[in-house]
Amino acid sequence: MTRDLKDTVFLPRTDFPMRGGLPKKEPELLAHWAAIDLYGKLRQDGAERAPFVLHDGPPYANGNIHIGHAVNKILKDVVIRSQQMQGRNAVYVPGWDCHGLPIEWKIEEKYRKAGKDKDEVPVLQFRAECRNFAAEWVGIQATEFRRLGVEGDWQNPYLTMAFDAESAIVREIHKFLLNGGLYKGAKPVMWSVVEKTALAEAEVEYQDVTSPMIWVRFPVVTAPTPVLNGAAVVIWTTTPWTMPGNRAVAYGEDIPYAVYTVTEAQEGSLAKVGEKLILAQALAEGVATSAKATFAKGADVAAADLNGAILAHPFRGHPEANGGYDYPVPLLPGDHVTSDAGTGFVHTAPGHGAEDFDLGRKFGLEVPRTVDADGSYYAHVPLFAGARVYTPEGKPGDANGKSISALIAQGALLAKGNLKHSYPHSWRSKAPLIFRTTPQWFISMDTNDLRARALAAIDETQWVPPQGRNRIHAMVESRPDWCISRQRAWGVPIALFLSKADGQPLKDEGVLNRIASFFETEGADAWYNRPAADFLGPDYDPADFDQVFDIVDVWFESGSTHAFVLERRNDLSSPADLYLEGSDQHRGWFHSSLLESCGTRGRAPFKAVLTHGFALDEQGRKMSKSLGNVVAPQQVMEEYGADILRLWVVGSDYSEDLKVGKEILKSNADLYRRLRNTLRYLLGALADFTEAERVEPAAMPDLERWVLHRLAEMDAIVRQSTKEYDLHRLITELHNFCAVDLSAFYFDVRKDSLYCDAPTSARRRAVRTVLERLFVTLTAWLAPILCFTAEEAWLAFLVEGDDARRAAWPESVHLRQFPDIPADWRNDALAARWTVVRDVRRAVTGALELKRADKTIGSSLQAHPTVYVQEAHQAALAGLDLAEISITSGITVMVGAAPEGAFALADVAGVGVVFGPAEGEKCERCWRILPEVPAAAEGVEQLCHRCDDAVGHHV
């Protein structure tokens, strides 16, 4: 009776499961890392290495993390881990932005729901609630970030609300005060009526709205030329509420104008037959259409004819205005005036627009105070006292309607309509904003050459992708002075004293140092809790000074983190090697960090900046609850595991926006399985492998040396990709290597040798040596990306190995370095040879697939094809067993042209394949059909010579 030959085959053996079970396994690995103090060991291992510093841009501590957070933190973690495994000491210190509107808004919501006014709450009580709220979310977010596999100094993160941070921030403010860069001025800023504060550009988003648009007459009072007598200049605006703030009308010096007479007015038109209107010639027809009237062109009007003209305000003479609008309205030249839309004239309200303000400052116009912080008109504004631009809830108020009604009553309105257009809104409250001129604190872009220094620093920085340089360069080049003050309660105050005598800030370094010292021991609450005398000291009388309670812009705070994180921690340094955030941070954190550091240190706080896109749904839409397309990272991890998220992030072209959804995640889960199965196959094939089995490369067959060559090629790609932060290329190349070179080719070819050769076979030993190198190398390369799976596979490798293996290798894959690949493994000539061999193999397997499809054969081992090749192919195949490579039982190679009807591939010229069946008997162990296998007989094992020998060596 013959034995069961299955027991003599060396099949893969491992406890590493085919299915990952990541949602359950990953928390166990997190616990393992905590138990072995992985972060502490990483720091110990890297203590003598060159540092790599990736400075963490702080997220707001105000809610659960979203998919955008996951993208950002995963990319940072992959970069940190890959740098650590290439010989750097890559320290990652996570941080949080704990001040400002996002957190304050959450506390205000609580009061609003309770019907309370937060302004009535004592400021220290309110600040304490904000601090507690932020602290709670720091803890929650830290847990969620760690669940993503992000490794860092979670026990010692940085917080902008920490006392030492608040002290450092106020010191940075004081540096600008002392170097002359900080000043107080009145300028138009984007103002939130709902939040009652100025907003930075980075806190603004744009939404489409429908606004009323009006065409308004400004009668000419003083005409420098007779042609203007009796005429009215017409302006167009989409903000009727700004009419009380009008102080001038601007014209373009290069625009051709003319006087037009109304010859006909349709029913309902506000135009008056016979009246004269001054308009840009290119826009007159459009104005006539809007006014439902017909115009006749009269005399041309040059810009010189307009110079010196004085107009009447549309509300002039209103019986209820008490002369409040009886001032002259000059006609002034403005570079911002175009003939693209409107009338060719621009209504100018210096208190409600940047260009209006600049024109007013140039010509010495009054900047009237018309609208209060809550969006209502001040009591002193004629006709409009108490009217609202927007309500406290951010809804349109009655100001537009009152302005239009007053214009109609005055006979000043020529036409009206509605316009849908993009308009600035608060990122937090989603309410529309207004331009409002208020006293604010600014950092000058020109004092101390800040703009020039920042532009030079941009050019000295590596930008990934490169177009990031152009984006931020344009922003800095054209940006106005930096408004750093906010009218809020939670944050670091701009802790200064203003002299009541001259309004100038006190620049006494002793006073400034006392302020910062109190902040360091008591936090910024000291500014509210202590009397002014404690800060001013004995040399000054508090009665002579006003204390500044404006809060500094949170972007200034986060822009200062280099000062109290990079420069103060012993494990970090400045400038950082890398800042890595979303592309919106060109106008946010990158921007503020650049300006703050250039303004105080004359250089950027970073050497390189990497930006990534936003996470969108599978249709490329922005995620929103209303669309029901939000992909929460917590849910993805519960269903798939964090490694699938990590694979999706790195596998996406994150230089653009990243799409994610059910189908994309399923696709990544499939890709993950291929990578996991590669590791599983390697582990199984290495069962019982020891150092005694290792073979030197020089003694290996050509195929094994080709695999080593591919490892050398991949090593160069891995190192170059991580150096350039091109992680998308990295995972693409790794996946293709595993799926194409290994699984579909090398593993397929060598499984026969692995399973069926005798353990002492030189070929099998070479195969196992190469497989061990593959496993050791792939787990290292994959560890930064698939941090959990690589660790799981590595622990299985250690457990399933002998004592010598466990003694030789670290207890975590993350304590390893990328393996050093010997330079002599690279063999381009060998690679070129195997390119030819693989082309021939493709032709053979293509021919056999057809025979398998038509049921001629069930397995390629049933075939013995004849392959017709050219001499170049024959040279490449010399010394190789093409049957083994093609997984057939035999092959005949012929040099010459293939007969008609032979199978051929269009891209493999000169190779033809003619099918033939394998002859002989089937080996019961390896299933090859060979003439040497004895015929079936009682008591006789049908084995080929190789298997007969191997059975004798089976343990």
Automatic annotation (TrEMBL):
Zn(2+) binds at C923, C926, C944, C947. Binds 1 zinc ion per subunit. It catalyses: tRNA(Ile) + L-isoleucine + ATP = L-isoleucyl-tRNA(Ile) + AMP + diphosphate. L-isoleucyl-5'-AMP binds at E581. The keyword Glycosyltransferase does not apply. Its EC number is 6.1.1.5. A motif ('HIGH' region) lies at residues 59-69. The keyword Iron does not apply. ATP binds at K625. GO terms for molecular function: aminoacyl-tRNA deacylase activity; ATP binding; isoleucine-tRNA ligase activity; tRNA binding; zinc ion binding. Residues 704-863 form the Methionyl/Valyl/Leucyl/Isoleucyl-tRNA synthetase anticodon-binding domain. Keywords: Aminoacyl-tRNA synthetase, ATP-binding, Cytoplasm, Ligase, Metal-binding, Nucleotide-binding, Protein biosynthesis, Zinc. PROSITE patterns: AA_TRNA_LIGASE_I. One of its GO terms (biological process) is isoleucyl-tRNA aminoacylation. GO terms for cellular component: cytosol. InterPro entries: aa-tRNA-synth_I_CS, aa-tRNA-synth_Ia, Anticodon_Ile_BEm, Ile-tRNA-ligase, Ile-tRNA-ligase_type1, Ile-tRNA_ligase, M/V/L/I-tRNA-synth_anticd-bd, Rossmann-like_a/b/a_fold. A motif ('KMSKS' region) lies at residues 622-626. It comes from the Bacteria. PANTHER family: ISOLEUCINE--TRNA LIGASE, MITOCHONDRIAL (PTHR42765:SF1), SOLEUCYL-TRNA SYNTHETASE (PTHR42765). Catalyzes the attachment of isoleucine to tRNA(Ile). As IleRS can inadvertently accommodate and process structurally similar amino acids such as valine, to avoid such errors it has two additional distinct tRNA(Ile)-dependent editing activities. One activity is designated as 'pretransfer' editing and involves the hydrolysis of activated Val-AMP. The other activity is designated 'posttransfer' editing and involves deacylation of mischarged Val-tRNA(Ile). IleRS has two distinct active sites: one for aminoacylation and one for editing. The misactivated valine is translocated from the active site to the editing site, which sterically excludes the correctly activated isoleucine. The single editing site contains two valyl binding pockets, one specific for each substrate (Val-AMP or Val-tRNA(Ile)). Monomer. Belongs to the class-I aminoacyl-tRNA synthetase family. IleS type 1 subfamily. NCBIfam families: ileS (TIGR00392). This is Isoleucine--tRNA ligase. It comes from Nitrospirillum viridazoti CBAmc. The lineage of its organism: Bacteria, Pseudomonadati, Pseudomonadota, Alphaproteobacteria, Rhodospirillales.
